[in-house]
Request: fold
Amino acid sequence: MSTEFSSELPLLQANQLNCERDDRTLFADLSFELRCGELVRITGPNGSGKSTLIRILVGLSAGFEGDVLFKGQPMHRARAGFYDGLLYLGHQVGVKASLTPQENLSSIEPSASQHAIFDALQKVGLKGFEDVPSQSLSAGQQRRVALARLYLQSKPIWILDEPFTAIDQSGVEQLEQLLIDHSSKGGLVILTTHHQLSVPHKEITLGAM
Ligand SMILES: Nc1ncnc2c1ncn2[C@@H]1O[C@H](COP(=O)(O)OP(=O)(O)OP(=O)(O)O)[C@@H](O)[C@H]1O
Reply:
């Protein structure tokens, strides 16, 4: 893990975020500080704004008031450094149906070796499915293709929107362990999930307003 991310400064800060969609307040005056080594679950009922908050943090949504800071700098000045350290997995699996798992990962992670890709696919339980068109994989297997990226990159900040969707019990346990390992090595993990984590973590709770 990069020593650049080991200071006591918060890695990510949200200051007084206000967000409305369709004249409905999703969250107001929402502030938090997230540091290296934390595992953070954003929780709340359906429609409370979890994915919206994630999209704001990763810079995919501009529809909000307030500030997001990276290492104490306003995001608009720090975005390049933030993206350099970010692995973001969105709500959709982002797997191209016509490509095989191996081809999908090669296109998303062009610097990864074929050996590393096969190794990552094996780790997520897709040994033997490397060359199968992804459209013929199950929903859980497609999610696993996306999750294989966690084994391919050494980015310190993981932001994951519903990573447990369609994953079976053994996959859930493996992913929880991976998240714990990453944060214990100094990484910051932020995720949304309706799954109750069985490992120690911090929570940001959104509610119906
Ligand atoms: N671009 C948009 N335009 C209008 N409304 C939006 C937009 N994006 C989200 N919303 C609304 O904002 C609310 C919050 O959506 P969001 O996807 O953030 O919720 P969530 O907490 O992630 O929900 P879930 O648990 O169901 O995944 C929803 O009512 C949704 O319809």
